Amino acid sequence: MSKYSRYTELVDKYREFLITAEKYIWRNPEIGYKEWKTSAYLEERFAELGYEVNRASNIPGFTAVYDTGREGPTVAVMGELDALVCSAHPESNPETGTVHACGHLVQVCIMLGTAAVMKAAGDDGTLCGRIKFVAVPAEETIDLEFRDRLIEQGVIKYVAGKIEFMYRGFFDDVDMAIMVHADSDPEKLFKMIDGYDGCITKHIVYKGVAAHAGGSPHLGVNALYAATLGIDACNSLRETFREWDHVRYHPIITQGGQAANAIPEIVKMDTCVRATTLDMILQTNVKINRALAASAAVGANVTIEDKPGNLPFHSSKLMNRMFEEVVEELFGKGKVIHGGWDTQSSDIGDLSSIMPVIQPLCMGAEGHQRGDDYRIADIEKAVINPTKAVVCLVVNLLSNNGEMAYRVIEEYKPLYTDKRDYFAEIDRIAIKKQLVVTNPDGSITLDFHNPNYHQKTEHISAVPEVTEE
Ligand SMILES: [Zn+2]
């Protein structure tokens, strides 16, 4: 009998419980900071299992703790509550268009399963420390106007749920964190990730002058034309992006005009600037802002609102190795792919900037992530197997007086040893400014730097001097 069978057999016992939870959450998809039903459902299940639930109260999400009663490290097992908007999906909510097209429902079931099994297993005196279950809202960077309102109302300070939870102190007593995200691959069971890009989120507003599009267009300034020039100007930067910096820039127009017979006065765009390091994100962002400013200077103006998106994610190498070893022992060799660096971003990166974190991917999903054909096709691969792997990893971390957990902490070098330094850094990213400034003498200035990072990025301002030939 494997040393794990006491736990894996319990996971099998909770199979129906987890399938019911998965079905409920699939049928009740909610997007970031609106996951009230999802959170309430899980809170009830945790309470039934005998946990004391600490709610985030004015936003969805909660924490619950399994305490061995013995001194030791605290391992967080997380689950993200939020769904996405994809109204083309046949099973999306007909009113809101929301659907779990990124498979986050799988994560919360794995978290719930781990909580159930740890309670059911009871204390055999071999584990130390604590397991903190953290149900986090709002991982996806979407619906930004709603979140801006929450910020204005003082409900939240940060757009991303894990950052908000870090800010509220929910991770202050946590030493390391684990979350398993859904993915798809017909052959394998898990995929290990080295890390993700970080990003800045941008809200861009072009301002022109409205006029009658038929009768008096000469009196207008077309903000849509300025914005399309801005898209082209940013596209013309792409060959300056180096492969190894993994830069991504992908704007959308969220408002392109209001009436076809009027010259568009306001055009709104949302986007991210992603790259492998914060330094490269900041440098690329200055180039993007300069291109946006230059395009507006045809007679329009542009305001940018930059917000901290996510910091790059760096997985704990030791904890990834431990997870892989557990998977091999439970399911045999050759079940894991190594995914290397990925160019998406997640607020798990922010957490990884202050503590060791891993986010292995589990299979079992099918279709295109964010697409109309996405679904969880194999509950065994998506929920049951990963729950077994997470439970056994946690047991390994907290056995032998937490020997392996302490090694994970020792091996990992976080970007910030103090969370206050992390917040000081990301708070410097946030700016809102108009990029084209008209001077008293009639000349214009393109003012595209973030003043908080000007020293780091001022070399990007330099342009060639024109000399007489
Ligand atoms: Zn996701």
Explained architecture:
It is a single chain. This protein is α+β, with helices and mostly antiparallel strands and 469 residues long. Helices cover 35% and strands 22% of the residues. It is elongated, with a radius of gyration of 24 Å. The protein starts with a helix and ends in a 12-residue tail after the last helix. The structure holds zinc ion. The site of zinc ion has 3 residues, from loops. Zinc ion binds at residues 102, 104, 181.
Number of strands: 23
* Heteromolecules bound: zinc ion
What is the total number of structural domains?
2
Which structural class do you get from the secondary structure elements?
Answer: alpha+beta
Average pLDDT taken over every residue: 96
In percent, how helical is the residue content?
25-40%
**CATH level-3 fold name of the largest domain:** Aminopeptidase
- In DSSP terms (H or I, runs of 4 or more residues), the helix count works out at 14
**CATH-wise, what's the superfamily of the largest domain?**
Zn peptidases
Over all CA atoms, what is the radius of gyration?
A: 24 Å
**How is the main sheet built?**
6 strands, mixed
Shape: elongated
Uncertain stretches: none
Strand order of the largest sheet: 1-2-6-3-7-17
The CA-CA distance between the termini, in Å, is 85 Å
- What percentage of amino acids are in beta strands? 15-25%
Please identify the top-level CATH class of the largest domain. Alpha Beta
> In CATH terms, what is the architecture of the largest domain?
3-Layer(aba) Sandwich
